[in-house]
Write a structure and sequence with these properties.
The chain is α+β, with helices and mostly antiparallel strands. Helices cover 34% and strands 34% of the residues. It has two helices and five strands. It has helices at 5-21, 80-94, and strands at 26-31, 35-41, 50-56, 63-69, 73-77. It has a five-stranded antiparallel beta sheet with strand order 1-2-3-4-5, with helices on one face. Strand 2 (35-41) and strand 3 (50-56) form a beta hairpin. Helix 1 runs parallel beside helix 2. The chain is globular, with a radius of gyration of 13 Å. The N and C termini lie far apart (34 Å). The model has no long low-confidence stretch (mean pLDDT 84).
């Protein structure tokens, strides 16, 4: 499973806004057979501050997105645009 070019463009656009605000400085991409993970880091050696996960449920055979912020907020989305809107709201509240 992987992020499409459009999905990756939206994620990197959101990441660049966080970088310009000084919230994030590094990111990581991880890929498995059933999931793709994009992590935002505040510092290179710290744990990820925000984790975006694209995964496929076996029973429903559909793709979902999962958002975890500071290991506290777990949200499940069916569309990447909803997930990005949630991250942008978070960035507005950080400022």
């Amino acid at each position: 499973l992987y992020f499409s070019k459009i999905e990756l463009s939206k994620i990197l656009n959101c990441y660049s806004i966080g970088v310009s605000n000084g919230n994030w400085k590094d990111y990581a991409l991880n890929f498995n057979k059933n999931e793709a993970i994009f992590s935002f880091y505040k510092h290179t050696l710290a744990s990820p501050e925000c984790i975006l996960k694209k995964f496929r449920e076996k029973r429903k055979k559909r793709t979902f997105y999962h958002l975890c912020i500071n290991n506290k907020k777990n949200s499940k989305y069916e569309d990447i645009d909803q997930l990005i809107a949630s991250i942008k709201r978070l960035q507005l509240s950080i400022i």
